[in-house]
Write a sequence for this structure.
């Protein structure tokens, strides 16, 4: 039984992407469809690589990191793949933790500015003391 193939339109629909985005991933070396004349023919392997690419993007990985990790499936032993994936995930986690700390600090600063503004507004709404 022949392996199933997909058109660019089918993959675009399945993954809620534009054909242009799929062609971009192809240009970046993440997928490599065969050609039937001028039409791209995507295999199960291309579909899986596209799915892994989108998963990596959701995790905040760069396309270079995604490509390296996906390419390892073809060349490196599983233990090497997993060790490298753990390194990349640890680096991404640290980056996100730092971003969370930065966001919390900015939110605390905003809280302080809001309090100051409210205090100033409340002070401006009170009648000024009368001079005698």
């Amino acid at each position: 039984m022949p392996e199933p193939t997909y058109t660019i339109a089918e993959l675009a629909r399945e993954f809620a992407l534009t054909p242009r985005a799929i062609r971009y991933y192809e240009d970046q070396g993440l997928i490599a469809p065969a050609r039937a004349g001028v039409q791209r023919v995507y295999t199960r392997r291309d579909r899986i690589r596209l799915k892994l690419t989108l998963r990596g993007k959701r995790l905040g990985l760069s396309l270079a990191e995604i490509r390296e990790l996906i390419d390892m499936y073809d060349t490196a032993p599983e233990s090497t793949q997993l060790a490298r994936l753990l390194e990349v995930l640890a680096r991404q986690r640290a980056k996100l933790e730092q971003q969370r700390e930065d966001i919390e600090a900015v939110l605390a600063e905003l809280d302080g500015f809001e309090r100051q503004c409210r205090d100033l507004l409340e002070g401006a709404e009170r009648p000024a003391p009368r001079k005698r």
